[in-house]
Every structure is written in C-alpha cells, then in structure tokens.
Design brief:
This protein has three domains: 6-137 and 307-326, 3-Layer(aba) Sandwich (Rossmann fold), CATH 3.40.50; 151-302, Dihydrodipicolinate Reductase, domain 2, CATH 3.30.360.10; 345-427, ACT domain (Alpha-Beta Plaits). It contains 14 helices and 18 strands. The strands form three sheets. Strands 7, 8, 9, 10, 11, 12 and 13 form a seven-stranded mixed sheet that branches. Strands 3-2-1-4-5-6 form a six-stranded parallel sheet, sandwiched between helices. Strands 14, 15, 16, 17 and 18 form a five-stranded antiparallel sheet that branches. The model has no long low-confidence stretch (mean pLDDT 96). α4 (87-97) packs parallel to α5, α5 (108-124) packs parallel to α10 (203-217) and α7 (163-175) packs across α8. By secondary structure, the chain is an alpha/beta fold. Helices cover 36% and strands 27% of the residues. Bound molecules: L-homoserine (HSE).
C-alpha cells in the first residue's frame, strides 16, 4: 500500500497505553489493522511521566517525558491522550486540535468538563475528536449513539457505568456482605482505588451520564453539576428488603427526556425490578440500556475498565480517525440541541423506597403516614419489622415528585418518634414488555 503512514503520538503509558502499543504491534493483526485504517499506523512517540521506568513492549527510543512537545510535534498525525486528569490533558488535546491534529482520548473527566469547547475546537480546525473509552471502557456504546442511533429519538439512556460500585453492590446482594467489607475486597482486587471517593460517591458515574446524554440528546458538556448520590448509604437491610420485594439495588446513571424539551440527568442508587436486563449485570461489568422511540430497548454489556478492553475501544477510534484522515474528512463530535432544558432533579417523578427506624409506640405509624399524605406522597406498600424496642418501616411509594419526597423526609426527620431515616432511593420501573 502506498498510502503514507499515519503517525501516532501516545500520551500516557499506563495499563491502557501499554495495551494499545501491544495491540498496534501485533504482527498477526497487521494486515487487518492496515485494512481498517486504510493506511499503516506507526507509533512515533510515547509520552510518560517517568521515562526511566522499564516498559516491556515499548521501544525506549519512542519514550519522551515532554507530552506537550509531542502534542505540538509536526511529525504527528493523531494524538492519543491517555494521561488522565483535566488541566494538563486539556493543554495536550488543545495543542493538537488547534493545529488540525485529530485526538483520541479515554478521558471522561476532560470530556465532561470541557467537551463542548473541545468539540468546537476540533470542528473549527477540521480535526476528529473521539472518546469511546471514556464511558464503559471496552463497551462500544458511544459510537452506537453517534452513528447507528443518530436518527433515532432516544427517550432514556440508563446504565451501570461504574464497575467498582457494581462489584460492591453485587457482593452485598449475592453474599450478604456489608458495604465496608465489600469495599475492602474491591480494593484488594484492584477494582477500587485507595481513595474510592470518585467511584463510591458517583462522581465517575455522573460524568459518564453527562457524556452519554450529550450524544443521546445533544446536551452540553461544560462540567455542570448533575444530581448525584453515592452508594455509601446502601445498607445490607436495604438490599435484603429489595430482594424480598423483587428488586435489586444498582447504582444507575440515568439521562431521560422529561416532556418535549426537558432532560433529567442523574446518578444514584436505584431499585430496579429483578427481571430488568440491567438487574442481571453482576460484578465489575458495565452495561448501558437505551430506550428508543422506534428501536425499542437495546443493551450493551462488557468490561468497563482494564487495560486490554479499554485499549480495544481506543484502537477502534484510532482506526476510524486514520480512515477519516486518508479520506480527507472529519466527523462532528456531537451536536448541541439549544432547545433542551436541564430539568431539576426535584421535579422528576418516580416511585421511591424509603426506610425509617421509629419508636414502636401507638400512633407512630399514623403520624408518619400523615406526613406522607400532606406532602402528596402516596404509599403503595409498607412493611414493619421489629428491632429491639424500635420498628423499621419500609415503604414503597407510588410515583411521586422527588421534591415532595424530600420534603417528606425533612419533615419526618423532625418527628420525635423517628430515630433515623435509613434510605430514600428511587425505584425505576424499567420493565420491558
Ligand atoms: N473507576 C471506574 C469503574 C473505571 O470502577 O468503573 C474507569 O472509568
């Protein structure tokens, strides 16, 4: 083939970067990769923080510690940004895009924070910006939204987009562990970071929801805060109740239409009917469930993290970008729909699971029920179980406005007879017919 080589600069050689170099240098895949890219690909530089570290499989002559110089180099056609973080990664990506050099990134924080600005920069300079690995690791959901579903009216996207928390909740559900021992095991297995805040407090899931929503609906990526609640408040008793009631508790990222122009985006623990396809997604797997107006329900499932799975998504982007370069074209990263309005989480309606510990005395249930009633929250079912001289009340509500449910919780927390509010999680009735 006489097509000039596509020269690739890789920034970051951790698990994903190293796996990508290996995939690119696999001789048995050489012809297939050249066919897919319509040109040979050549790695011309790998920027790392510590150039002295031994990196098997990476030619030491390619190693540099100057990532910005690599991003600005005239000798690079595509930059693959795998460094992570926002500020420095943004400077590398901007340096490349502003010169018309296409970028592939796996950086969800960068895309959630400044995806709109980067997409504009890419467009202005005729460059591609692809970020498949930013959501769901090796699960090819973003390109599906971007291309296969481009003409579909999507009603809702919801997913298990954080493997660490799905691992923890699965352990709690399947083995009856409490949160802390499940977290300790997730750390020992390398799923959870030493500081697990980004995962367990749902910051990671919230960023992924923002990215999914931008492609599904055309919402902006400007780092705005969306409604988020982590899994640290999920107790073994909540899981036990959910199981008996025919539900599982999952940390779900949800983006959905509300009315004609509203979009609600949120990430929180959710009770999901046990028969829902997402309910059977166990361990550290990720899955995304899309409901289209004409397509009906669709689901993607796979490894949401890990060097090799994530590197396959990066490689797919790289091949696509190379082919675009050979054909002298570029794609629009995503289109913003100016008419969309972000719906406040308080305005969203759903059923709720609520758990309260109360004094076990005459009149307590009546006073608690009264608070639900005058806040316009209708009780669907209630279970009482004894705990010493107290009682645990577990409620499922009918569909209620979240603001009213929170007002109910505020008022209940002030009643002398209520010792604690244990849980207040939405129930998503995503049954597929
Ligand atoms: N920490 C993430 C997870 C993987 O546990 O799913 C990277 O997005």
């Amino acid at each position: 083939m006489n097509t000039p080589k596509i020269r690739v600069g890789i920034i970051g050689a951790g698990f994903v970067g190293s796996a990508l170099v290996q995939l690119l240098s696999d001789e048995s895949r050489h012809v297939a990769l050249v066919d897919a890219a319509m040109a040979p690909l050549e790695v011309v530089g790998v920027a790392v923080r510590d150039p002295k570290k031994v990196r098997p499989g990476i030619d030491t002559r390619l190693i540099t510690s100057d990532a910005l110089a690599l991003a600005k180099s005239e000798g690079v056609d595509v930059i693959v940004e795998l460094a992570g973080g926002v500020e420095s990664a943004r400077s590398y990506v901007e340096a490349a895009l502003s010169r018309g050099v296409s970028v592939v990134t796996a950086n969800k924080a960068l895309m959630a924070e400044c995806g709109t600005a980067l997409a504009q920069l890419a467009n202005q300079n005729g460059a591609d910006l692809f970020y498949e690995a930013a959501v769901g690791g090796g699960v090819p959901i973003l390109r599906s939204l971007r291309t296969s579903l481009a003409g579909e009216r999507i009603e809702r996207v919801m997913g298990i987009v954080n493997g660490t928390t799905n691992y923890i909740l699965s352990k709690m559900t399947d083995e009856g562990c409490d949160y802390h021992s499940a977290l300790a095991e997730a750390k020992a297995l390398g799923f959870a970071e030493a500081d697990p805040t980004a995962d367990v407090e749902a910051f990671d899931a919230a960023q992924k929801v923002q990215i999914l929503s931008s492609l599904a609906f055309g919402t902006e990526l400007r780092g705005e805060l969306i409604s988020r609640e982590g899994i640290t408040g999920v107790r073994a008793v909540d899981i036990d109740y959910a199981t008996r009631a025919g539900y599982v508790i999952k940390l779900l990222g949800v983006a959905e239409r509300v009315g004609e122009h509203g979009i609600s985006r949120r990430a929180h623990p959710t009770l999901l009917p046990a028969e829902h396809p997402l309910a059977s997604v166990h361990g550290a797997l990720n899955a995304v469930f899309v409901e289209g107006a004409k397509s009906g329900p669709l689901m993607w499932l796979g490894q949401g993290a890990g060097g090799e799975p994530t590197a396959t998504a990066v490689l797919g982007d790289l091949l696509y970008v190379a082919r675009n370069k050979v054909n002298g074209r570029h794609d629009v990263p995503f289109s913003v729909d100016d008419q969309l309005l972000s719906v406040d989480a308080g305005d969203v309606a759903s059923a709720f699971y609520i758990s309260l510990d109360v004094r076990d005395e005459p009149g307590v249930l009546a006073s608690v029920a009264g608070v639900f009633g005058h806040n316009d929250v209708s009780i669907q079912s209630m279970e009482q179980s004894g705990i010493a001289d107290e009682a645990r009340l577990s409620f499922l509500t009918h569909c209620a406005v979240t603001r009213n449910v929170h007002a109910t919780m505020d008022e209940l927390s002030k009643l002398e007879s209520v010792d604690c509010i244990g849980a207040c999680f939405p129930v998503i009735d995503g049954r597929v017919s």
